[in-house]
Amino acid sequence: MFKSISFNRRGVIAAVAASMILASCGSSNEDVVAPANLDGAVEKANLTLGFIKLTDMAPLAIAKEKGFFAEEGLNVTLEPQANWKVLLDGVIGGQLDGAHMLAGQPIAATIGYGTKADLIAPLSLDLNGNAITVSNKVWEMIKDDLPQENGKPKHPISASALKPVVASFEEQGKPFKMGMVFPVSTHNYELRYWLAAGGLNPGFYTPGDVGGLVDADVQLSVTPPPQMPATLEAGTIEGYCVGEPWNQAAVFKKIGVPVITDHQIWNDNPEKVFGLREDFAEKNPATTAAVLRAIIKAQKWLDEDGGKNRPEAVEILARPNYVGADAEVIAASMTGKFTFEPGDTRDAPGFNIFFDKYAGYPFYSDAIWYLTQMRRWGQIAEDQTDEWYVQQAKSIYRPDLYLAAANSLAEEGVIAASDIPETDGFKGEQSGFIDGIIFDGSQPNAYLAKFKIGLQKGQTVTAAGVK
Question: Within a 10 A sphere around the Cβ of 93, how many other Cβ atoms?
Fold first, then answer.
């Protein structure tokens, strides 16, 4: 494990960004990411952090309600945001000091897709937590043809089941539409990944375009998470990919059926991050470290002792100032179960992971996966070298800042040293994808070449199609 480090007093530390030691781009674990230096006092005690009403904002709510922010000398206000664009603008403009963010948001902002700003992600908030839901109409069209196991649909369900539905819509002269929450969201890339793995093209982006409809078999559009069920019920879309509790809400309202969870698309995939401006972290290193310490404590609380605290977390999240959904709906996925339809509730102990499996560590390879999907679908318009992917990942994901906070907690005995990975920032080869393709973050271009649907080397997109 990492060497122990000293600091002035408990709960007051500084993470000096300039001291970061970047690891090599391999995945051998011969080199490890070093923590930033520690020293100093909190520079800014009063903070405003943003979030979207999803259960994976739980680490922020728990850090507030269980007093972890206060223990670090912070007075934190948590403010729900109307949508991901408003949240992003709030962080960039300084109205928010940091936020529960889509992993793709600090990445896209830094490379200049959609907007340009220097944002960083010093902590990953969770693994898994999303699902794909289809309307009752679509479910009735596909369910009888699905393979069965013990009298229930066999999972994971392939998007190939939608092919005849899409063809039926096309024959009627209607596009088949599905929703996701933001163009650079995990949900967009997971939905696209699932569709493409089933032989359906989710469309490509042209430069400056946020629609991504070129050559699309399935048209994807943006809907804020809390509005997903109502949009589905109105018939505007025939399905969506979103985080909880908005898939379970469709089940409880009897307007839709979840067909696959994201950990069935990519097992233990990284989800949200805690994002903030790079200059905020540089000007307020002790404050940044204090925030990370509080969030790490909350992540541990959420996962400790087999999830014994999850019922209390559900009660907290159900409050109107947080997620504001019925506790029963939140508990349906937050406490180790997931309901696909009435009578089909299955064990899902890993549906939300906040601390276990090094969930909080911001791996470079996670950032690189998002970058590969941006390139796959045209959001990155041209080919890039492997070195470019690594360089971008290292400028955005900041494990040195995470380690400064985590190692101090380990030294205090708040978390175990074994809870902190010894790594160069790369996970190595990863399996667990629905299409069986192996991902190695140190070889992004070789990974992109494996996909049958997606941009290949040398290809670009125009309104007329891929060339």
Answer: 10
- Parallel/antiparallel/unpaired status of strands 429-430 and 439-440: antiparallel
**Distance (Å, rounded) from C-alpha 99 to C-alpha 327?**
24
Within a 10 A sphere around the Cβ of 122, how many other Cβ atoms?
Answer: 32
Cα separation values, 374 from 104, 122, 133, Å: 9, 21, 23
Residue ranges of the domains in the chain? 17-127+270-430, 130-269
Which helix H or strand E contains 461, and what residues bound it? Answer: strand 461-462
Q: How many Cβ atoms from other residues are within 10 Å of residue 463's Cβ? A: 8
Which stretches does DSSP call E strand in 352-456? Answer: 429-430, 439-440
Tens-digit pLDDT profile for residues 89-122? 999 999 999 999 999 999 999 999 999 999 999 9
Residues whose CB is less than 8 angstroms from the CB of residue 80 and which lie 6 or more positions away in sequence, other chains included: 50, 51, 52, 53, 321, 322
Contact 284, 291 (CB under 8 A): no
How far apart, in whole angstroms, are the C-alpha atoms of residue 448 and residue 228?
Answer: 31
Residue range 257-299, pLDDT digits in tens: 999 999 999 999 999 999 999 999 999 999 999 999 999 999 9
Cα–Cα dist 23/21, whole Å: 6
**Sequence-ordered list of residues with C-beta below 8 angstroms from that of 123, at least 6 positions apart, any chain:** 273, 274, 292, 295, 296, 360, 362, 401, 402, 405
N-term to C-term CA, the chain: 49
Q: Indicate the SS3 state at residue 257.
A: strand
Give 34-37's long-range contacts (Cβ < 8 A, gap of 24+): 34/2, 34/400, 34/403, 35/2, 35/5, 35/400, 35/403, 35/404, 35/407, 36/285, 36/400, 36/401, 36/403, 36/404, 37/404
Is-same-fold flag (17-127+270-430; 130-269)? yes
Q: Which helix (H) or strand (E) holds 165?
A: helix 163-171
Q: Are strands 344-347 and 239-243 parallel, antiparallel or unpaired?
A: unpaired
Type of residue found at 94: G
State the CATH architecture for 130-269.
Answer: 3-Layer(aba) Sandwich (3.40)
- For the domain made up of 17-127+270-430, the CATH class stated in words is alpha beta
